[in-house]
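Q: Got a minute? One more chain.
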Amino acid sequence: MTITRRDARRLFLHQQGLLKKHQFGTGKGAVLSTIRRLSYLQIDTISVVRRAHEHILATRVENFDAKMLLDLHKSRQIFEYWGHAAAYLPFEHYRFYLPVMHGWTATRKTDKRLAAHILNRIEAEGPLQSKDFKDPRKNKQNGWWQWKPAKRVLEHLFLAGELMVTHRNGFQKIYDLRDRVLPVGTDTSLPSREEWAQFIVQTMVQALGMAREQDLGYARSSIQQLAGVQLKQDLRTAIDQLTESGELVTVPLDEAIYYTTPCLLSLLPIKLGKRRVRILSPFDNLVINRQRTKLLFEFDYQLECYLPAEKRKYGYFSLPILWGDLLVGRLDAKADRKAEVLVVKHLVLEDQGKITEPFLVALADGIQQLARINYCPTVVIEQTRPGTLRKLLSGLVG
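A: Always. Here it is, folded:
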C-alpha cells in the first residue's frame, strides 16, 4: 500500500480528534476520551489566551467547560503528573509512571526533615497547598528556581509519588497523601522496562496514527530524564517485538520508515469532509513535536515568547491555524479579559493564494470560536499579512 504525506496527516488528525466535528462526542465523556486518546494533556501556566490544557480540549470538545476537567480530576478518572511536561493523564495509566517516581526518588535529594514535617501535617490536617507552609525567610525571592523551601519539597514529594495533586484551586495545586488519592483497586505494580517501553510505543502510535521511531519517543523523552534512565534501546526493542508479533506494521514515507497498526491502516483513505479552521494552542499535541510538524505539514513553527522581542517574526504567542488538513498560518492573540476583547495582534498566512471565500468564512468562524472560549464577545484585528486580509475579515468578525 502506498502512503502519501496527506494520508499520514489525515490519519494523524483523525487520531487527534481534529479532522471532523465531535469526533470524541460532547460533554465530560468526550473530555475523558480526548485525554485517553492523546495519552497526555499538557498543563501550562501561560494565560495570554486560555491556558493550554483548556484550549486543547476546547478545540476538540465544542461544549467544553473547565468544570468537566475538575470533575474528572476529583472523581479520580485522571491524575496529574509529568507526561511530556506537567500533564493530566488517564488514571488507568498510573502504574506506567511508577518508574519515573522511583527514578526521581533514587536520583534526587531533598530536605528529609522538612519532607517529614510536610507529610505529617498533610496526614493530620488533610489536603494542603504551598501557601499553607510559611516561608521562614524574610527576603522575597522571585522565579521558580528560588521557590520557598516548602514549595520545593512539596514538588519533590509530588514527583517522587508520595504526594498527589488531589485537584487545583484556581491554578494552585492541592496536595494530599498518595494513598488517599489513589482509587481503590489501582494497579500499583512496577512495570518492567520492557512493559514500560511497549506502553510508550503503543499509546503514542494510537495518538499519532503513524510515526517514525523518533516520534514515538519524543513525547516521553522528559519522563526518561526525570527517571534518570535512557530508554532509546528499550523503545527500539519494543518496536521490533510489536512488529514481529504483527501488532505494528511498517510503511515507507518520504524515505523514512513509519510505524502504525493494521487497524489504523485500514482507515485509509480518509475523506476530509467539510473544512473548518481551528486555531490551536502552541502546546497542542498536534504541533508539539516541531520537527514532525515541519515534515508532515511543511509548517516551520516556533513559539516566540521565549525569544527577545526584536527577534520575533510573528508575535509573542502566535497560534497555529489549521484549515482542513493543512496548517496555513499563525495568529498572535491576547485575551483582554477585563475589557472582554480578543485582540488579534498579528495574523499571517503562509500562502496568499488560499484566500478564498470559503476560507475567509471558516477563518472568521475560527477566530470567533477562539474569542468565545476566551469569553470575549468582541474581536479587534490590528494587523494582518497580507494587509488586505484585515479589511476582508472586518465584516465577518466583530
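A: The CA atoms of residues 220 and 308 lie 29 Å apart.
Q: Perfect, thanks.
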